[in-house]
Amino acid sequence: MSNYLFLYGTLLPHLAPSVIAPAVARLRRVGEASVRGALYHLGGFPGAILDEGADGNIHGTVFELPADDGVLDALDEYEDFDPNNLRDSQFVRRLQPVTLATGEELRCWIYVYNRELGSAARIPSGRFSEL
């Protein structure tokens, strides 16, 4: 069974900082997709808040993860996600159904923002790349 990851921000290949770019380069692009929720601008990166009842979508790209668990471990570290300490993690990784541009639904990992939004501005288009 393949594992998939929905990316919407600084982990996208064209936005990935050099510190994480080698891990991101190991992902295989599947296609454009969206998930119900809202995207917020948190300075140099976005934060996704999932919400089935939201009036908008978060737009991104689905990638297939390689069999090497080290890639997902590196991504978790970059996103400050500790599966043994969810409370203190900046992002948490969750399995979530996303909708591909083809209409197909696929269960993917997604990093969800895990802190207070404060005065963070919502990105109305749901696309971080449009900022």
Map the helices and strands.
Layout: E1 4-7, H1 21-24, E2 28-41, E3 46-50, E4 57-64, H2 69-78, E5 91-100, E6 105-113, E7 121-122
Written overview of the protein:
The chain has a single domain (4-130), classed as Gamma-glutamyl cyclotransferase-like (Hypothetical upf0131 protein ytfp). The chain is 11% helix and 40% strand. The chain contains two helices and seven strands. A hairpin with a 4-residue loop joins β2 and β3 (46-50). It is globular and about 35 Å long. The model has no long low-confidence stretch (mean pLDDT 95).
Q: Mean pLDDT, nearest integer? A: 95
Number of domains: 1
Spans where pLDDT lies below 50 across 5 or more residues: none
Largest sheet properties: 5 strands, mixed, barrel
Number of helical regions: 2
Judging from the principal axes of the Cα atoms, what is the shape? Answer: globular
Query: What integer value in Å does the Rg equal?
Result: 14 Å
Q: What is the CATH third-level topology name?
A: Hypothetical upf0131 protein ytfp
Briefly, what CATH class?
Alpha Beta
Order of helices and strands: EHEEEHEEE
Per DSSP, what share of the residues sits in E-state strands of 2 or more residues?
A: 35-45%
Distance between the termini: 35 Å
Per DSSP E runs of 2 or more residues, the count of β-strands stands at 7
Structural class: mainly beta
Strand order of the largest sheet: 1-4-2-5-6
CATH architecture classification:
Roll
Helix content: 10-25%
> For the record, what is the CATH homologous superfamily label?
Gamma-glutamyl cyclotransferase-like
